[in-house]
Amino acid sequence: MKAVILLSGGLDSSTVLYQAKVDGYECYPISFDYQQRHRRELRSALLVAQKAGVAQHQHQVVNFDLRQWGGSALTDDTINLPQERSLDEMSQNIPVTYVPARNTIFLSFALGYAEAIAAERVYIGVNALDYSGYPDCRPDYIQAMQEVFRLGTKQGREGKPITIVAPLINLKKTEIIQLGNQLGVPWDLTWSCYAGSDVACGVCDSCRLRLAAFAELGLEDPLPYV
Predict the structure, then answer these.
(1) Domain boundaries in the chain?
(2) pTM of the shown model
(3) Contact 6/14 with Cβ under 8 angstroms?
(4) Could you give phi then psi for residue 33, rounded to 5 degrees?
(5) Which CATH architecture has domain 2-216?
């Protein structure tokens, strides 16, 4: 059995990769270099995949450039990253770190890869309870994309649609870390920071969410921070 895993190298997607392994699937990660501010995450994606025992030829890295139209602090350097925001502040509005249609683009590539290798599943680490509240990380979005997977593929039309699996969608960040600990996810190899440096900033939304979750569990995040 084969599964394609959307792997950014972050805490969530790395947990999903290890979950897919436990579920008994031969894993084919797919990562994306879209010229994002935090391309440092790609190094983590490669390291996490290697640690999980994924063969190099099975891990695809797709290159394209979303800086052409910007629209996000992650693809436009003129838009400042939010920093030092409280969890309450993060939950109020969809932040400027939202990349327009990113998961739709990612899932489209993943679907093509999955059908080409006759995979049964596409795993994605979206999380609806994350304070960022991105619109393409919510259950109704995943349900809609599942219908696209069914209608837009040969496998789907022949009654064997590729299934989107989002095992973290209703978990808190603390619960994701607990699950990752059970699965043996190497947190020291993962990367969450949006700032684009070689050392995590500790003040962007992603860093603060991660640090808060480790702290709530009484655990130390093994990543170095500024």
Answers:
(1) 2-216
(2) 0.96
(3) no
(4) -105, 95
(5) 3-Layer(aba) Sandwich (3.40)
